[in-house]
What we know:
By secondary structure, this protein is of the alpha/beta class.
Amino acid sequence: MKRRNTLAALLASALLAVAGGAQAQAKLKVGLMLPFTGTFAALGTAIDNGFKLYVKEQGGKLGGREIEYFVVDDESDPAKATDNVNKLINRDKVDVIVGTVHSGVAMAMAKAARDSNTMLIVPNAGADAVTGPMCAQNIFRSSFSNWQSSYAMGQVMAKRGHKRAVSITWKYAAGDEMAAAFKEGFEKGGGQVLKQLNLPFPNVEFQALLTDIAATKPDSVFAFFAGGGAVKFVKDYAAAGLNKTIPLYGPGFLTDGTLEAQGDAAQGIYTTLHYADSLNTPRDDAFRLAYVKAYKLQPDVYAVQGYDAGQVLSIGLNAVKGDLSKRAEFAAAVEKAKIDSPRGAFTLSKAHNPVQDIYLRKVEGKQNKAVEVAIKALADPARGCKM
Length: 387
Ligand code: BEZ
């Protein structure tokens, strides 16, 4: 009798082990919600490329699980964002969402992720609220906060001796937050912002605003545009002859992934960003080589952020052996990790935003060349985060 019981127990535990093994091998459903059309289409594609490159380098598995992709083109349209993210959460029942580029869309995603406790990794959108008042155990960012990207440029422009600046951006969360952070950094350094100009996203009719800049006669201009909008703005600024008299600056989105199209108009522009084209570190060189080999394209900051979203997910998943229900252990592992990024190693703050070096870069030819580290290990203030 005793022997029969032991045999039954052995059989039961063997069956459990098989079931457990089968569960560990279930595919991890990853929802990629990114713009594949519109002014940010190239940014979405680079993030998608970067993320998939990292997964391929891991043999197609993260945390021991194969990956199954579910893709939504969010068109950078905040009006469609809630419906789009709910397709991934409710229809596709994804385990984790990676997205997106546009701050307004990202805020709707962060709300849905909080409400449903879905894991979210933001590979670009800088909306301060995502790692501020909306911060959560299940929300991470592999990119930057809008404050981080532009506060640094305010400091740099003041140090370079500028006193009277005009800012120009699209009128939405990212533009508003970058203009405000720039003003904070610039005024702290003794500068004055004469005007904060803007136009609705994603308009590119810059003429009236360029005329306003010429009439205001600042000693410098700070501009945030990205993707197709950045190409048009930099070309229009040069075509109006303003680059001869009023130096143009911005967060690096103004010239990242855009230099081929901007050509001569971008030469000499200084920007601040957490990545540059000439870091010449073994880590970045290896990444760039692999990216060029895989896609026949030069990588940019968006590709790096997509790649690092893969790294964040991988670190967390390895710590929980692929079991995403272990939210606290996943978060603890990511919080204590040093992420070996092509941009240079970084950590995540308690609010889950990168603490990272911000480079001052200068456009030379087709490259955003690193000039120096403008601010070392800059952390977002995470205003309003209660984690
Ligand atoms: C944003 O909306 O947060 C954003 C978009 C493009 C580049 C940088 C930031």
